[in-house]
Amino acid sequence: MNFKQTRRLSLALAAFTLSLASLAQEAVIRKNIAQRYPELKTINEVNKAPIPGLYELRINGTEIYYTDAQGDYLVVGNVYDTKQKRNLTEERVDKLSAVKFDSLPFKDAFTIVRGNGERKVAVFEDPNCGYCKRFEHDLQTINNVTVYMFLYPILGADSAEKSKAIWCAKDRAQVWLDWMVRDQAVPSSVQMCDTDALKRNVELGRKHKINGTPTLIFVDGTRVPGAIDAKQIEKRLADAKS
Q1: Number of H helices, E strands in the chain
Q2: Residue 138: CB partners within 8 Å, gap ≥ 6?
Q3: Which listed CATH number (1.20.1270.60, 3.40.30.10, 3.90.1150.10, 3.20.190.10) goes with 101-241?
Q4: Sequence-separated contacts (24+) of 156-161 with Cβ below 8 Å
Q5: Of the four, 65, 94, 165, 242, which is 20 to 30 A from 30 by CA?
Q6: Are the C-beta atoms of residues 218 and 238 closer than 8 Å to each other?
Q7: Considering the entire predicted model, what is its pTM?
Q8: Which residue stretches of the chain have pLDDT < 50?
């Protein structure tokens, strides 16, 4: 066996040893956390965190916790990179919760097109959400965009009734904008139609842990919860396209 072969074998053995040590460390963490905090249920993944000596626990799909090498301590909160001024925990959660844009059921949304409609964004909104109304005013200033509007009635029975009336309207976009932007009442005399799309939207939102409105999903899969302003919308649209 020549020198190069010996070196490759040594590197392979070192990597294998490190892998075994990593698996053993993960087993210790899983065992101790499960025994001491059974309410955390299934740990999906254990990884080394950006801070030396700290480990990341991924639980329930997208929830992030931190612990030490023995699972003796549990840290709940955000890890910030102070040099780069980045919220590393938030970035990790954003990556985990990313939604494949093309997989969204657009048949359960209605579209609002402005300009050439080249840029695209999906939005989940409740008609009784005050933040959504503020967001809609900013959204009116955005041009060359196609908005896929998913009615997401999660704020009570009246939200469901308004959503049904909007969904069953002859011109959904018009009725939606009349209500959200112009404060014109949603017609109550609309003949009801098949509103199963609204139920599917709520199920979809729960699946992807969309817990508030408005929530925006861009073509690169990134999501933004909350009523961001026009400048932020423009930046997100540009970032998603690049």
Answers
A1: 7, 11
A2: 227, 228, 229, 230, 233
A3: 3.40.30.10
A4: 156/128, 158/128, 159/126, 159/127, 159/128, 160/198
A5: 94
A6: no
A7: 0.72
A8: 14, 16, 18
